[in-house]
Write a structure and sequence with these properties.
By secondary structure, this protein is of the alpha/beta class. The protein contains eight helices and four strands, in the order αααβααββαααβ. Strands 3-2-1-4 form a four-stranded mixed sheet, with helices on both faces. A hairpin with a 4-residue loop joins β2 and β3. The two termini are 24 Å apart. This is Membrane protein.
Length: 166
Protein backbone atom coordinates (compact mmCIF):
# COMPACT_ATOMS: atom_id res chain seq x y z
CA UNK A 1 0.00 0.00 0.00
CA UNK A 2 1.39 3.39 -0.99
CA UNK A 3 0.75 5.68 2.00
CA UNK A 4 2.21 8.74 0.28
CA UNK A 5 -0.27 8.32 -2.57
CA UNK A 6 -3.17 8.00 -0.14
CA UNK A 7 -2.11 11.11 1.78
CA UNK A 8 -1.68 13.10 -1.45
CA UNK A 9 -5.16 12.10 -2.60
CA UNK A 10 -6.84 12.74 0.74
CA UNK A 11 -5.38 16.20 1.27
CA UNK A 12 -5.35 17.69 -2.21
CA UNK A 13 -8.21 20.15 -2.48
CA UNK A 14 -10.07 22.35 -4.94
CA UNK A 15 -7.37 24.97 -4.69
CA UNK A 16 -5.07 22.69 -6.70
CA UNK A 17 -7.26 23.02 -9.79
CA UNK A 18 -7.59 26.77 -9.38
CA UNK A 19 -3.80 27.04 -9.14
CA UNK A 20 -2.99 24.75 -12.08
CA UNK A 21 -5.95 25.55 -14.31
CA UNK A 22 -7.68 28.80 -13.35
CA UNK A 23 -11.04 29.62 -14.88
CA UNK A 24 -9.42 31.62 -17.71
CA UNK A 25 -7.33 28.56 -18.67
CA UNK A 26 -10.40 26.32 -18.60
CA UNK A 27 -12.20 28.80 -20.86
CA UNK A 28 -9.29 28.74 -23.35
CA UNK A 29 -9.28 24.92 -23.28
CA UNK A 30 -13.03 24.91 -23.96
CA UNK A 31 -12.52 27.31 -26.86
CA UNK A 32 -9.69 25.16 -28.27
CA UNK A 33 -11.91 22.07 -28.22
CA UNK A 34 -14.78 23.99 -29.81
CA UNK A 35 -12.46 25.34 -32.53
CA UNK A 36 -10.89 21.93 -33.08
CA UNK A 37 -14.22 20.22 -33.65
CA UNK A 38 -14.96 22.55 -36.56
CA UNK A 39 -12.07 20.84 -38.39
CA UNK A 40 -13.20 17.21 -38.10
CA UNK A 41 -16.05 14.87 -37.26
CA UNK A 42 -14.47 13.63 -34.02
CA UNK A 43 -15.14 14.56 -30.41
CA UNK A 44 -12.68 15.61 -27.70
CA UNK A 45 -13.51 15.74 -24.01
CA UNK A 46 -11.15 17.02 -21.31
CA UNK A 47 -11.81 15.85 -17.75
CA UNK A 48 -9.92 16.69 -14.56
CA UNK A 49 -10.21 14.81 -11.32
CA UNK A 50 -8.50 16.14 -8.23
CA UNK A 51 -8.15 12.84 -6.40
CA UNK A 52 -9.55 9.37 -5.98
CA UNK A 53 -11.71 8.33 -3.05
CA UNK A 54 -10.33 6.11 -0.29
CA UNK A 55 -11.97 2.93 -1.61
CA UNK A 56 -10.37 3.41 -5.04
CA UNK A 57 -7.02 4.05 -3.37
CA UNK A 58 -7.27 0.94 -1.21
CA UNK A 59 -8.10 -1.08 -4.33
CA UNK A 60 -4.96 0.47 -5.90
CA UNK A 61 -6.93 1.83 -8.84
CA UNK A 62 -4.57 3.30 -11.41
CA UNK A 63 -5.13 6.53 -13.30
CA UNK A 64 -5.57 4.43 -16.47
CA UNK A 65 -8.29 2.31 -14.88
CA UNK A 66 -10.04 5.43 -13.62
CA UNK A 67 -9.77 7.08 -17.04
CA UNK A 68 -11.53 4.09 -18.58
CA UNK A 69 -14.27 4.37 -15.93
CA UNK A 70 -14.66 8.09 -16.69
CA UNK A 71 -14.72 7.37 -20.43
CA UNK A 72 -17.76 5.21 -19.78
CA UNK A 73 -19.42 7.45 -17.17
CA UNK A 74 -19.18 10.52 -19.40
CA UNK A 75 -20.35 8.48 -22.41
CA UNK A 76 -17.38 9.40 -24.57
CA UNK A 77 -18.05 6.13 -26.41
CA UNK A 78 -21.50 7.38 -27.42
CA UNK A 79 -20.50 9.28 -30.57
CA UNK A 80 -21.94 8.60 -34.04
CA UNK A 81 -18.65 7.31 -35.50
CA UNK A 82 -17.09 5.90 -32.31
CA UNK A 83 -14.41 8.57 -32.51
CA UNK A 84 -14.55 10.22 -29.11
CA UNK A 85 -11.28 10.95 -27.33
CA UNK A 86 -10.97 11.58 -23.59
CA UNK A 87 -8.04 13.50 -22.14
CA UNK A 88 -8.10 12.60 -18.45
CA UNK A 89 -5.99 14.33 -15.83
CA UNK A 90 -5.68 12.92 -12.31
CA UNK A 91 -4.13 15.82 -10.42
CA UNK A 92 -3.09 13.99 -7.26
CA UNK A 93 -0.99 11.54 -9.28
CA UNK A 94 0.14 14.12 -11.88
CA UNK A 95 -0.98 11.54 -14.42
CA UNK A 96 -2.52 12.09 -17.84
CA UNK A 97 -4.33 9.38 -19.76
CA UNK A 98 -5.91 9.40 -23.19
CA UNK A 99 -8.72 6.96 -23.88
CA UNK A 100 -9.97 6.79 -27.45
CA UNK A 101 -13.05 5.06 -28.77
CA UNK A 102 -12.72 2.11 -31.13
CA UNK A 103 -13.33 4.09 -34.32
CA UNK A 104 -10.28 6.31 -33.89
CA UNK A 105 -8.28 3.83 -31.84
CA UNK A 106 -8.32 1.36 -34.75
CA UNK A 107 -6.55 3.96 -36.88
CA UNK A 108 -4.08 5.45 -34.41
CA UNK A 109 -1.20 3.48 -32.93
CA UNK A 110 -1.08 3.25 -29.14
CA UNK A 111 2.39 4.86 -29.22
CA UNK A 112 0.90 8.07 -30.66
CA UNK A 113 -1.48 8.39 -27.71
CA UNK A 114 1.43 7.69 -25.35
CA UNK A 115 3.57 10.36 -27.02
CA UNK A 116 0.81 12.95 -26.58
CA UNK A 117 0.52 12.04 -22.88
CA UNK A 118 4.29 12.32 -22.44
CA UNK A 119 4.27 15.76 -24.06
CA UNK A 120 1.54 16.90 -21.66
CA UNK A 121 3.43 15.53 -18.67
CA UNK A 122 6.66 17.24 -19.83
CA UNK A 123 4.81 20.57 -20.06
CA UNK A 124 3.32 19.98 -16.60
CA UNK A 125 6.81 19.41 -15.14
CA UNK A 126 7.68 22.90 -16.40
CA UNK A 127 4.54 24.33 -14.79
CA UNK A 128 2.93 24.85 -18.22
CA UNK A 129 -0.42 23.25 -17.49
CA UNK A 130 -2.63 25.11 -19.94
CA UNK A 131 -0.01 24.92 -22.68
CA UNK A 132 0.33 21.16 -22.24
CA UNK A 133 -3.41 20.58 -22.59
CA UNK A 134 -3.69 22.94 -25.58
CA UNK A 135 -0.81 21.15 -27.31
CA UNK A 136 -2.55 17.81 -26.72
CA UNK A 137 -5.81 19.14 -28.16
CA UNK A 138 -3.89 20.31 -31.22
CA UNK A 139 -2.20 16.92 -31.67
CA UNK A 140 -5.51 15.07 -31.29
CA UNK A 141 -7.11 17.57 -33.68
CA UNK A 142 -4.52 16.64 -36.32
CA UNK A 143 -5.27 12.93 -35.92
CA UNK A 144 -9.03 13.44 -36.08
CA UNK A 145 -8.71 15.68 -39.17
CA UNK A 146 -6.70 12.95 -40.86
CA UNK A 147 -9.09 10.09 -40.13
CA UNK A 148 -12.44 11.84 -39.63
CA UNK A 149 -12.65 14.93 -41.83
CA UNK A 150 -15.71 17.14 -41.56
CA UNK A 151 -18.64 15.61 -43.45
CA UNK A 152 -20.19 17.69 -46.21
CA UNK A 153 -23.35 18.28 -44.12
CA UNK A 154 -21.43 19.22 -40.99
CA UNK A 155 -21.14 17.15 -37.84
CA UNK A 156 -23.15 17.12 -34.65
CA UNK A 157 -21.49 18.03 -31.35
CA UNK A 158 -22.10 14.88 -29.32
CA UNK A 159 -20.00 15.78 -26.24
CA UNK A 160 -19.65 19.01 -24.26
CA UNK A 161 -16.69 21.21 -25.13
CA UNK A 162 -16.47 22.59 -21.60
CA UNK A 163 -13.86 20.84 -19.42
CA UNK A 164 -15.40 18.49 -16.89
CA UNK A 165 -14.21 18.88 -13.30
CA UNK A 166 -14.90 15.73 -11.31
Amino acid sequence: MNFLRIIRHLFLGQIAIKRMLPSASLARIEQAIKQSEINHDGEILFAVEISLNLISLLKKQSARERAIDIFSLLRVWDTPHNNGVLIYLLLADHDVEIVADRGINAKVDHKEWENICQEIEAAFQKGQFEEGILAAISAIDNLLKKYFPVPSKGGKNALPDKPVIL
